[in-house]
Amino acid sequence: MLHLAEGTKNDTFRWWFDEISKRNVPYDIIGLSMYTYWNGPISALKANMDDISQRYHKDVIVVEAAYAYTLKNCDNAETVFRQKRKRPGVTLLPSRGNTIIFMT
């Protein structure tokens, strides 16, 4: 597996994997990271995943992710998602404990 951060950045993925392809680097899966607060909407992630899967004929998987679910400081550590830093279009997910939501 080859893994890149910023899973919504299609231009970065195309550039990097085009270069890897030119060099015949062997790999079986493309991994990417997704942090909606910093990287953008899930629709951009899906578009990138669809594109690179078809372009490079590889399976693609999100291997690192986070999504804001609370504004509370539950552990006395700096919570990265705060009301004053909230961005337009980024909403909190309802808390579901430790449930992971898979999208198909």
What does this structure look like?
- The protein has 104 residues and is an alpha/beta fold.
- The protein has one domain.
- It has three helices and three strands.
- Strands 1-2-3 form a three-stranded parallel β-sheet.
- Strand 1, helix 1 and strand 2 form a beta-alpha-beta unit.
- Helix 1 runs parallel beside helix 3.
Entry keywords:
104 residues, alpha/beta, 31% helix, elongated
| Count of DSSP-assigned helices | 3
Order of helices and strands: EHEHHE
Shape, principal axes of CA atoms: elongated
Cα-atom Rg, whole angstroms? 16 Å
Query: Taking strands numbered 1, 2, ... along the chain, how are they ordered across the largest sheet?
Result: 1-2-3
Task: Give the termini separation.
Answer: 21 Å
Tell me the total number of β-strands. 3
Low-confidence runs of at least 5 consecutive residues:
none
Structural class per helix/strand content?
alpha/beta
Task: Describe the main β-sheet briefly.
Answer: 3 strands, parallel
Overall mean pLDDT stands at 80
- How much beta, percentage-wise? 15-25%
Number of structural units classed as domains: 1
Fraction in helix: 25-40%
